[in-house]
Every structure is written in structure tokens, then in C-alpha cells.
Amino acid sequence: MTDSAPRSDPASSSEPSEPAPSPGPVTGRGEGLGVFDKALLDRCISCGFCLPACPTYALTRQEPSSPRGRITLMRALESGDLTPDDPTLAEESSFCLGCRACEPVCPAGVEYGQLLEQWRDHQWQGRGRPLIARLLMAAVSRPWLLRLQGLVRRHARERRPASGERKRERPVSLMLGCAERGLYPSVSRAVRELRPEVAVPAGQGCCGALHAHNGDSAAGAGMARALGERLPGTVVTTSGGCAAHLAHHLGRDRVRELSEYLEATGHRPSGRVTVGGRRARVALQDSCHLRNGLGVTRPPRELVAAVAEYVELPGAGDCCGAAGTYAMLRPEDSRAVLAPKLEALRKLDVDYVVAVNPGCLRQLRQGLRRTRSRTKAVHLAELLAMAARSEPGAGPGTEPGPGTDAGPAAG
Fold first, then answer.
1. Residues whose CB is less than 8 angstroms from the CB of residue 179 and which lie 6 or more positions away in sequence, other chains included
2. What is the pTM (predicted TM-score) of this model?
3. Distance in angstroms (rounded) separating the CA atoms of residues 181 and 194
4. Is residue 12 part of a domain?
5. In the prediction, which pLDDT does 392 show?
6. What CA–CA distance (Å, rounded) separates 333 from 16?
7. Is residue 18 over pLDDT 60?
8. Which residue intervals are annotated with compositional bias (Low complexity) in the record (predicted)?
9. CA-CA distance, 217 to 407, in Å (whole number)?
10. Overall number of domains in the chain
11. Is residue 9 included in any domain, yes or no?
12. pLDDT of residue 165 exceeding 50
């Protein structure tokens, strides 16, 4: 499958097309192909509440590029009314960000994320899977490659327990994200700085989210279970996308995103982040899967507000366009999704924007750099560690000039 050209901006068209009501479940021929879980597919009532929440529908105003329209395509595939090699099926399975913004607004409780995984499991087989996705999936499937990143980039490592140190009754393990340990090793180091009791077991592999979102959900589930066996106790992750994937397979009681864990353990942020002697103005970009999949929005905001002047970013819950491999598979569409967010940040003129997912962090940094913004993108763990270091006797101060490359987020 080849990547398509970027979609046209609906504002450039004199008469944007109005969405036509989608038909109900397709009756089709026979029992269906068995691509989708019928109970999940039939749950959609074609009401259209999902349309305003969908970022790709916002770009095109075309029904097939909405969750309702895509479910209609899924039904047509399942019934045999569309053949598996239909170009619209290939295009729309790729164009979807998988942000799951449609799920919280759906009155019927459609689990669109699972349907999308099933769709790509069928659609993205063999050469139907984008080459970049195949290469990335092959890379993260090799634990020795992930460990090599740590040797070079110095992510957090397990410390040797002191003599006589008591073993924790309920161990807590930090999951090292595949991309994060190589691109942003300072994030895991910041977590250990904030909470030294969190263990960092060696030999961690990938959690499998990359596979699940790119057409191999069976492998993704197996990788999640394998990682769960290697990480004892509560699993803490600094990636919203990984948190949602692991929680689905290991159970919600075992998995905590960093802000959740800090809140649950009564962590009280210390110090403050300042710029030019004043309290820094800081916005936050939600992780789509953390927000839409796990419903976590309040804890990261309260942590930011404890150490800086929190400023709500308009559209903070809207996808930034990173969406795992999406920014690499469809870079032009990814930038189009990001553009309104960059404009909102320009108007806010904040010092920092906080991310709770490494993909979002990469997307924001690249976009801010491209637009020559003075705003810096940092991970939540980095911001809290910056604040803690400002306390007397806590070590060297950290008050980098916003908009520069040399700062806490440089990794």
C-alpha cells in the first residue's frame, strides 16, 4: 500500500460537501467474512455524534473519512459488498489517526479502536502494510536493539539495592518506551529522580502497541503479556499510548500512567518552574489514548498547576497528528492535523507545552521548531524534575531560556 497525497483543506473549496446520513448495518451476503467482531460492528447506530470529534473529517468534510463512514466501509467489507482490494478501504484504513476521539462522544459505546485494529489486521497483511511500519515493527521486536539504545543514550537503569534494604511488598516497575528510551532518555531519568523507589528492570522489550496499531494485534497482545511477566507489580509508564494498550491486556489495576501513579501515591510536587524570575506559563497537550481510552485528564493538569502557571490549551484534547507511526506514514496529513494546535500555542505564547506521550513530544517539538516558536515542548516528568531541582540544596538550578535547544528537554 502506498501513502496517499495530503487531503485538501475544506476551506479552499467553495462548497464543502455536506455529510450524507450513513445507512444502518449492511445486510450483505451470507454470514460475512469474519473480519470484525459482529457485536462491536453492530453497535454503531449511525447517529453522527462522532463527526465533530474526528480530526480527519474536520480536514475533508467527507463522510468516508469519519468514524461513521469508516464503520459503513467496514460493514461493506464484512458483507462482501466491497472487495478487500477496494482502494477506498485501503485509503481510509490508513487515513484514520486511530485517536479514538469518537469513543467518549458515542452514545452507543462503540469501541472504535478495537474495530480499527481488526480492520488493519485484515487490510495490512504482507505488502499491504506500509514499509515504514514493517521496518519499525521488526526493530522493536528485537530486545537487543532496544537495550543498545540504552547503552548509547543512558536512559534510567536499576540501581543496586543497598545492603540490608528491604524488598518492597508491592514492587513498582517503570516501563521504558521503545522510542522514548532512545529519543528522550531524560524522561526515565526524571522519573527516577522524582521517585527513586520505582524499579527499572533490565531486559525490557516492546509493549506491543506498535504492532496492535499497525495490523498485527495478535502479536501486540502477546508482547504486552510478555512484558507484564517481566515487570513485577504495578507497571508505571510515561507514554499514554502504551498505558492504554497495556491496561487493555494486563488489566487496569496493574497499569498506571505517570500522573496517575503520582496522584495515587500522594506525590506532592516541590519547587517551581520559572522563566526570567516569574512563574512559567505552561500548557498541556493530552495523549489521545490516555484521554479517550483511559479517561485520564485531571492528574497531569493538577501536577503542572502545582509547579507553574497552568494555561489551558484550546483543543488540548484534539489529536496533535503524531498518532504512533502516522506522522511517518502520512507526514503531510499529520502536519495538517497539527497546524491548528501550533496556531493556538502561538496565540497563547506560553513558555512550555507539556506532553505525556513521547510521540506527541516529538510532534510538538518538530512543529514548534519549524515555526520558530519560543515555546518549548517538555515531558511532564521533565517539568516536575525541573521544579524539584529549584528547591534549595536540590542541585543545579534549571531555568533555561524558552525557545532554545539547550534545556531540560534536550535529553
1. 358, 359, 362
2. 0.84
3. 17
4. no
5. 74
6. 18
7. no
8. 1-17, 401-411
9. 38
10. 3
11. no
12. no
